[in-house]
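Hey, resending since the last one bounced:
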Amino acid sequence: MTLTPYESSTQKVRLAVIDACTYKAPDRLVRVVAIEHLTGGRGVEVFYSTEVDVDAEQILEQYSWRWPIEITFQDVKQHLGAEEPENRTRRAVERTAATGFLLYSLIVWWHETACAQPAQPIRNWRKKSRSSFADILGELRQQTLQTQSETNLSTPGIPPGVKKYVNALTRLIALAA
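The structure tokens again:
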């Protein structure tokens, strides 16, 4: 069988479906959908749903809707430091994730409202058509550094060699995203 769970990917899979009960809730059916990827090396994946009246393709489609949320979690952890926070108090622990997601939202909002064009890719990937969060974060860092350098390094007496280093530093800061 061929599935198209995401916008641009088609996957060849072998599919198995069964309705079963769990040990803790023997009166409630769950639909178990197992897929084996025939290409790509992803192996076997199993999905569960309490909606036993829908077919397997609908269950897989509904799981695919969750993918942007997973990407957001990964971006907040990887790029904004929420993966391994070093908190000591209960209130700090409670605030860390919320602050990370708020910061993520503000950065994406800034990109969507204040930038005339999508962020330029930091690294060139084949078939990449959209700006990633790393690209957006790199653009924010570049614009912030540019504003700071215009404010603090715009005096006419700065030698061209120093400007060359500032430009190289700007590129490295963008890559740090």
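The CA atoms of residues 109 and 160 lie 36 Å apart.

Sorry for the duplicate.
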